[in-house]
Amino acid sequence: MTEGIKEKAVGIGGITARAASRLAWLLWALSVALTTLSLLLLVLIRSHPGIHVFDWWLGNSTIVIDVTVGAIVASRRPENPVGWLLCLSGVAVITSSFTSQYAIYALLAQPNSLPAGEAMAWIASWMLPIMIGLQVYYLMLFPTGRLPSRRWRWLAWLTVTYILVGVITSAFSPGAYLGSLGPIRNPLGIEGFTQVYRAILYTMAPGLTIAAGISLFLRLRRAVGVERQQLKWLAYAAAGLAVGVIVLSIPVAIDTPRWYEWVANVIFIVVTPGVPIAIGIAILRYRLYDIDLLINRTLVYGSLTATLVALYFGGIVVLQRVFVFLTGQQSTLAVVASTLLIAAL
């Protein structure tokens, strides 16, 4: 493609491809800068023992991956809004992290050391509905950048309504960022708004996400060719994310050792970026048809691993019972024997 043709290529809003590329990477640079400042503030906060640490700092820091994928997609496919939505979603998440860390440092760690601490706490209070709404939107529009059909317009408008109502109610909810800022309260909070905001958040947010998932499923059912392969990539990543959510949710239902909670959090953080990465691969069509081989190997090795784990722990239980029956006491030989058996298999 010649330089002249590149200049004529337009993206969303009629901007040229070159301008779109610059804007996408500007959003990326902004995200990296805010993430760096957020981590710097975190280090300063951790130097003050007893000060509340922002709950979501680690997961929010990895959102740079989303913005990077979004910038690549938006710069190469500026006509597809999914890349731009990934960028904006990442910027919203990182902005919430930065304003939260700023507020905690300015109001708790070093009071009055930085200006506008309460203003930052207020901004952090109403970012969550925007983050969720943008994520629902890029799921609805994936992979073509358009709704599955005109019948899904209601979901698009309902998502806009949710963002507007969620921002207004959270902006006046006394608990800043659902308590993630510790003792810091929303400076503009009004009693009674918290219940309204929680009702909207805990009903509409899951409902919109489920509806977006259903739209993807219906799109997959009738998709063929390239679009079907694109949807397979997202489905594969979403399945990995679902496993991460299940692993992370187990400690809520039953008592688990501390090490398991750490492992569950690590697994969740590792699989979460899989969704934006899959979106990037699908839209850019990089090794698009490798997904079939990837799914096949995952099923084979996943089932094999699950079988070996079940045999390992089952072998320990059975051998322990044998040792108790023969000697009247438990023995570490059961663990050793089971380990050798699994190694042999």
Q: Can you walk through the features of this model?
A:
- The termini are far apart.
- By secondary structure, the chain is mostly helical.
- Mean pLDDT is 82; it is low at 1-9.
- The radius of gyration is 24 Å and the shape is globular.
- The protein has helices spanning 3-8, 17-46, 57-61, 64-76, 81-109, 117-125, 128-141, 153-171, 193-222, 225-253, 258-271, 274-284, 291-327, 333-344.
- 75% of the residues lie in helices and 0% in strands.
- It contains 14 helices and no strands.
- Helix 5 runs antiparallel to helix 7 (128-141).
Give a short summary of the structure.
With 345 residues, this protein is mainly α. The chain is built from 14 helices and no strands.
Topology:
Layout (H helix, E strand, L loop, with lengths): L2 H6 L8 H30 L10 H5 L2 H13 L4 H29 L7 H9 L2 H14 L11 H19 L21 H30 L2 H29 L4 H14 L2 H11 L6 H37 L5 H12 L1
Helix-strand string: HHHHHHHHHHHHHH
Number of strands: 0
**Dominant shape:** globular
Percentage of helical residues? over 70%
Quickly give the structural class: mainly alpha
Average pLDDT for all residues: 82
Beta-strand residue percentage: under 5%
Number of helices: 14
